[in-house]
Write a structure and sequence with these properties.
This protein has about 260 residues and is an alpha/beta fold. The chain has a single domain, classed as NAD(P)-binding Rossmann-like Domain (Rossmann fold, 3-Layer(aba) Sandwich), CATH 3.40.50.720. It has eight helices and seven strands. Helix 5 links the parallel strand 5 and strand 6. Helix 1 runs parallel beside helix 2, helix 1 packs across helix 8 and helix 4 runs parallel beside helix 5. The radius of gyration is 17 Å and the shape is globular. The mean pLDDT is about 95.
Length: about 260
């Protein structure tokens, strides 16, 4: 691996980004590629070739390798990790971003939706961290970045399973950091604020909720996937060598309000 020219230089490193096909994951994948990393992009509907994220990464001169996996299928997640390790060896960076959301009042929230969201948003994240992060621990270096949420700090409305999962991600981040910091593996998380993606389309389509949320954001606007780029590059880089167990809000000031 070439020596980095700056602490933020990711040249020669391999980054796995889950949920990379669109939204926040796409923004993170492109930011890491711009910093020099080659990207392994994972999504449940990732195209075998020619995806938008692949074109964006390759336009930056970096390699892109696509994988498709259903995070609701525990065996498929384990098989994904095995395929990545067999083909790419021990990766340098794991961005555990993939996830989903299902909305309903708690009194009508079904067992099926609860199980699905917890499986996709929490259990799958742990399996990938264990399988790919375990190899980092053996090697003595690596970076893991989870995507947490404002709901890692707050309760939300009509998204009980998502809140539970994202609260779990914050705890998992700290637990793995406690175990792995001494091995040279950094485990941290980013907590996006309100970002304009498909997952927030329902909120943005509701004029009352959209106005209430927008009025509370000190920055005066909703975030974009690109707003997460600097944070993920930092946490994936040597600049964050002494940063462990942090859940970093990128929220336009929401939590400080």
């Amino acid at each position: 691996m070439p020596e980095p020219t700056t602490p933020f230089d990711l040249t020669g490193r391999i980054a796995v980004v889950t949920g990379a096909r669109r939204g926040i994951g796409r923004g993170m994948a492109v930011a890491l590629a711009a910093a020099g990393a080659d990207i392994i992009g994972v999504s449940a509907r990732m195209e075998a070739t020619g995806s938008d994220v692949q074109r964006a990464v390759e336009a930056l001169g970096r390699a892109f390798t696509p994988y498709r996996a259903d995070f609701a299928d525990r065996a498929a997640v384990a098989a994904l990790a095995a395929r990545i390790r067999a083909r790419h060896g021990t990766v340098d960076i794991l961005v555990n971003n993939g996830g989903d959301i299902r909305r309903a009042p708690a009194v009508r929230y079904s067992d099926a939706d609860w199980d699905y969201v917890l499986e996709v948003d929490l259990t799958a994240q742990f399996i990938l961290a264990r399988e790919l992060g375990g190899a980092m621990v053996e090697r003595g270096s690596g970076k893991i970045v989870f995507t947490a949420s404002m709901l890692s700090f707050q309760g939300g409305v009509n998204i009980a399973a998502y809140t539970a999962a994202k609260s779990g991600i914050a705890g998992l981040t700290r637990a793995l950091a406690n175990e792995w910091a001494g091995t040279g593996v950094n485990v941290n998380a980013i907590a996006p604020g309100y970002i304009a993606t498909d997952n927030t389309a329902a909120l943005r389509a509701d004029p009352v909720r959209f106005s209430a949320i927008s009025d509370r954001i000190p920055a005066g606007r909703w975030g974009t996937p690109e707003d997460l780029g600097g944070a993920v590059v930092f946490l994936a880089s040597d600049a964050a060598a002494y940063v462990h167990g942090v859940v970093l809000p990128v929220d336009g000031g929401w939590l400080g309000r």
